[in-house]
Write a structure and sequence with these properties.
The chain is built from 17 helices and 16 strands. It has about 550 residues and is α+β, with helices and mostly antiparallel strands. Helix 2 packs across helix 10 and helix 8 packs across helix 10. The protein is elongated.
Length: about 550
């Protein structure tokens, strides 16, 4: 179920990002409707389609999503709306308080409250078990994820059944043998520069002509229609279908159907698909006229009108291309208006149009830049490389060890260490240091764990154990002060709590920058030792709970 919820969170980020791009495309089309060619309108929709189709995109400082504060972390982008229940347990107030109040974990502003954690946990709270892995996602999210998956499977099943039915119908069709129709078809193929033979099939199964087949295309012409059409009308009909073939509209139409099956729960995408197919027909008409010439514009338009009258009322073939959406009066007027005003050369994209599409692609087919440590303000980078000592940020120094066993053996105090790590993580470094220059013993241990290999590190967490640490209050004040003193600005801090296990609570501090990347601190005290875990990466609260639950003293590990 967690895997399904994770996939659904990816879907949420993807569909929301694509919706933003789609709304931008619609705004541009409305603003420049009188100065935008049919092909340009359809090309902009292809950007939306690609955004919906691919799972992820590279980060870029030029991305549109930098302004929308959306990062490439898909689950993170939705977690603000659908928080995990493991992060919000009720916290008892300090002993000197008159009331018990929960501590908010979503207040991303510097807190002025120094009472960070309770001195003792209320008895009824202490009896609650630690959150299990099944509590990582709320029940509502699990239900919505199942509904989304069921809808996707149902629509995909319908599309596959429809394609199977079309393929089955082809076996019942006969090849066109009328020499007049075959002669017109050959003339059309030469006009469009198509060398590959495209079969013409006929029958009485459907009344409307269409083109089908991505790899092996074929054109259906109703048997009753062939004898009724003049050579000119037949020429226009076949030209329209061959224009679809040359423009690869059959493949784009199939991709659009697949995308709609995945994003069916988003009403914006249904609107996009309808507008995209309508613009596809306009672009197809424009391409056909570009090949046929301006002189054929009026006769071609008359053929279009006649076919609209014949087939718009009874058409019920949603995945086919010919005259899609023709029962919409507004779309009929758009097509006729475009054909009437067509000028030779308008189908070709101008240099300005190419630049506009390229700029749109760079802005919309990239994610917001994820600032790294090198790009972060200096104070934030220093905070990453420092540890909290007696309420001050002091650069970590001391003796480094290659193995955990060597560090534990050399330490002058006893502390617990993680006995289980998240999948993909490994120990990179173990370091011992002193809390202050006056001390002579190694009473501070820092372990760094990384995810990935030496060439590509995708996440880290630092584990710190300090004998007789500065205390939770001083630790929070130090982190808070480092954010307030940050001259670059754009940082915020949130403070809350997390239940690690029965009777053990940890202070959780979240520091975010303007790019929405975050660094999380988990601080708690146990048996005279202050522990701290600092996270940069994708580890969740439940992962931290699992790490803390596995901790043992070295001699027991």
């Amino acid at each position: 179920m967690d895997i399904l919820c994770g996939i659904f969170l990816w879907f949420c980020y993807s569909t929301l990002a694509a919706s933003a791009v789609a709304l931008l495309v619609m705004a541009i089309q409305a603003l420049f409707r009188r100065h935008m060619s049919a092909r340009m309108r359809h090309a902009l929709w292809l950007i939306v389609l690609i955004r919906l189709l691919l799972p992820d995109f590279p980060n870029s400082p030029l991305s549109l999503f930098n302004m929308l504060h959306l990062t490439s972390g898909m689950e993170k982008a939705v977690s603000e709306v659908l928080p995990s229940g493991a992060d919000t347990p009720p916290i008892a107030a300090p002993e000197n308080s008159q009331e018990k109040a929960p501590l908010s974990t979503q207040n991303y502003a510097p807190s002025q409250n120094n009472d960070l954690l309770p001195a003792a946990v209320a008895p009824q709270e202490a009896e609650k078990p630690a959150p299990s892995s099944t509590d990582r996602y709320p029940l509502a999210l699990k239900i919505v994820s199942v509904v989304w998956l069921a809808g996707t499977v149902a629509i995909l099943g319908y599309l596959l059944a429809y394609m199977w039915r079309i393929g089955g119908k082809r076996k019942t069709l006969q090849a066109v043998k009328d020499p007049r129709i075959l002669s017109v078809m050959n003339d059309c193929r030469k006009k469009f520069g198509i060398r590959k033979p495209i079969p013409l099939l006929t029958g009485n199964e459907m009344k409307s002509p269409y083109i089908s087949g991505v790899i092996h295309p074929w054109i259906y012409v109703p048997e009753a229609l062939g004898s009724r059409l003049s050579d000119a009308q037949l020429y226009h009909l076949l030209s329209h279908e061959l224009a679809h073939y040359k423009r690869k509209d059959i493949a784009w139409n199939m991709i659009g159907s697949f995308v709609l099956a995945v994003h069916w729960i988003n009403p914006v995408i249904w609107i996009c698909m309808k507008k995209m197919k309508a613009d596809r027909e306009l672009a197809c008409d424009a391409y056909a006229l570009e090949v046929l010439g301006e002189a054929e514009a009026i006769p071609y338009g008359m053929t279009i009108i006649e076919f609209l009258k014949l087939y718009s009322a009874s058409r019920n073939q949603p995945s086919l291309l010919y005259f899609y959406g023709s029962d919409d009066r507004h779309q009929m007027i758009r097509r006729i208006t475009m054909i009437k005003s067509f000028k030779k050369g308008t189908y070709k994209l101008s240099s300005i149009a190419v630049v506009c599409v390229a700029v749109m692609s760079v802005m919309t087919l990239t994610n917001a830049a994820e600032p790294g440590t090198a790009d972060a303000p200096k104070q934030y980078a220093e905070h990453s490389a420092a540890v909290v000592k007696d309420g001050k940020l002091v650069p970590s120094s001391g003796q480094t060890f290659n193995t955990l066993e060597e560090a534990v053996k050399a330490a002058d105090f006893t502390f617990k260490v993680p006995d289980g790590l998240p999948k993909g993580y490994r120990l990179e470094e173990a370091r011992l240091s002193r809390k202050s220059a006056e001390e002579s013993k190694w009473n501070e241990a820092q372990l760094r764990f990384v995810e990935g290999n030496k060439e590509a590190v995708s996440g880290t967490f630092d584990f710190l154990a300090v004998e007789g640490g500065a205390g939770l209050e001083a630790t929070y004040e130090t982190i808070e002060q480092s954010v307030l003193n940050n001259k670059a600005g754009g940082f915020s801090i949130g403070q809350g709590s997390l239940r690690m296990m029965k009777g053990l609570w940890a202070m959780k501090v979240t520091v975010k920058n303007s790019g929405q990347s975050e660094r999380r601190y988990y601080v708690w005290e146990e048996n005279g030792v202050q522990y701290q875990i600092e996270v940069t990466g994708s580890l969740s609260d439940q992962d931290i709970i699992t790490i803390v639950s596995s901790m043992k003293y070295p001699e027991k590990a």
